């Protein structure tokens, strides 16, 4: 493997996360509108794309239409409410000790990402921040990662991508980037990443 010169990270579930009370509240609101009982278990499945390539796949598995689901979800999403429920993973500050360029590729909008990272004191660590869009594509498409690598002025064999879902791993594979699955909570995925770690501190062992 070429010498690693840059690190790319997913955001939600990798760097930051949400209090489960917020997750459960959001799903209960949407469920009420759809006439379905959506619980904390549903919220966990959705947030972490459990056993699925995408969140849409999770929603479809429940017998719901993803477009209708997200239209309702987005009416309830409130930035301040999300900020109040956001916390930084305890191992994330370790990244400040790694003297390499770091960036973010996320499905979260740029403005939300900017505010969330400022909240947890990590905004200055990441540049660029690439937010997936309809034009750019969404993971597992490799295009957002490739776009990020170009912005970093590096090549795909000079970076690693760290994420917490199958979607992240597949995006890295198709982009030709080494994948690192951060698995803090012993959640198995139906995919073998290049590396699997249970703490961001173990990135040091990969890049040494």
TrEMBL record:
Q: Does the keyword S-adenosyl-L-methionine apply?
A: no
Q: Give the UniProt keywords, A-Z.
A: Hydrolase
Molecular function, one GO term: phosphoglycolate phosphatase activity
The biological process GO terms on file are: DNA repair
PANTHER family in the record, alphabetically?
A: PHOSPHOGLYCOLATE PHOSPHATASE (PTHR43434:SF1)
Family that this chain belongs to: Belongs to the HAD-like hydrolase superfamily.
Name it: HAD family hydrolase
What is the organism of origin for this protein? Answer: Methanooceanicella nereidis
